[in-house]
Write a structure and sequence with these properties.
Blueprint: H1 2-13, H2 27-61, H3 68-100, H4 104-141, H5 146-149, H6 152-175, H7 180-218, H8 223-258, H9 260-264, H10 269-276, H11 278-299, H12 301-320
Helix pairs in contact: 2-3, 2-11, 2-12, 3-4, 3-11, 4-6, 4-7, 4-8, 6-7, 7-8, 8-11, 11-12
Length: 321
């Protein structure tokens, strides 16, 4: 009995909810926030799947879109597609159970079992976005050596490594409780390293871009070189928009998670409602997977045109059937 109670206590300790907010007096708030999260995810996940599938198909079927940069965008779309196809439906199911009267122990156990489905796409998205930022860094700073630095083999190794880094810790964490804290620390360190590398690339490329612009103004640069620079700069700006969107979507949930130990020590009504808002904040985090393909299509005319063609083709085939 003591062993069972110890396991349950350990399970609740690692959970984003606590016994305080699971009391009957917060039942209305809990159901209202769970319902809000369900509605947000039901509205967004079909569009997330559709838009990211279109981006992947566009790169796969159109040779003119198969640059290394666009292939990385398609890989990022693959992680976002996984969010829409696996993470969000699993999350919706969990919130439905909450509305039906999940106990705190059952909720925490479900969260732990579903954690692998939640965490892998998030980490994979972060690592792929870091790869895109590094690729833009090399393209802008080492333009003449780009082909020799970003080779096909290195490209494949980098993409596979991103998935391995995302999957292995999450899988090990689900298999063994002994290494749970170590793996959480490792994930945190890897995430911080990726964000630091990502920000370093963007700040470095900003100054490189400024120097290139001054050179184009002061020197007689060929029209072709100026056009190539403008194209690279546009791709860089797209990457910056994607990065800013990721940071905006990730910030609320990560700040909430960081302050959870402080929240759990408070008995304030407002603080407990903030704790219960965790499902809504996670839903905002997953909006990033919906925003990314919209950004690609908005920023790239070829992407937009190809996605429209693919969508019309699908609609025509559906009508004929």
């Amino acid at each position: 009995m003591n062993v069972t109670e110890s396991k349950e206590g350990s399970l609740i300790k690692m959970c984003p909810m606590n016994e305080m907010v699971w009391k009957q007096e917060y039942q209305v708030e809990k159901i209202a926030l769970a319902m809000t999260a369900i509605i947000l995810n039901i509205l967004s996940f079909p569009v997330t799947i559709l838009m990211n599938a279109l981006v992947i198909m566009a790169v796969k079927t159109r040779p003119r879109l198969q640059s290394k940069y666009n292939i990385l965008l398609a890989c990022l779309a693959g992680t976002d597609l996984l969010v829409g196809a696996a993470s969000q439906p699993t999350f919706i199911a969990g919130q439905i159970y909450v509305m039906k009267g999940f106990s705190l122990t059952e909720y925490c156990r479900y969260r732990k079992e579903a954690n692998i489905i939640y965490i892998i796409p998030i980490l994979a998205s972060l690592y792929h976005l870091t790869l895109i930022s590094v690729e833009r860094f090399v393209a802008m700073k080492y333009t003449l050596r780009y082909v020799t630095i970003v080779t096909g083999l290195r490209f494949k190794i980098a993409v596979v490594s991103s998935w391995v880094m995302a999957c292995c810790p999450a899988i090990l964490q689900s298999l063994s409780e002994e290494f749970e804290i170590i793996i959480r620390v490792a994930n945190t360190l890897l995430g911080c390293f990726s964000l630091s590398l990502l920000l370093y690339c963007h700040f470095s490329v900003y100054f490189v871009t400024r120097r290139h612009e001054e050179r184009i103004k002061c020197e007689q640069v060929s029209p072709q070189a100026a056009a190539d620079f403008a194209k690279q700069k546009k791709a860089l700006k797209t990457t910056r928009i994607i990065t800013m969107t990721l940071l905006v979507c990730f910030l609320p949930a990560n700040v909430h998670y960081f302050f959870l130990p402080i929240y759990f020590k408070s008995s304030s009504y407002i603080v407990n409602v903030i704790v219960l808002s965790q499902p809504v904040l996670v839903s905002v985090l997953w909006f990033n997977s919906l925003c990314n393909p919209i950004i690609y299509c908005y920023r790239n005319k070829k992407f937009r045109k190809t996605c429209k063609e693919l969508l019309k083709m699908k609609c025509t085939n559906f009508k004929e059937e």
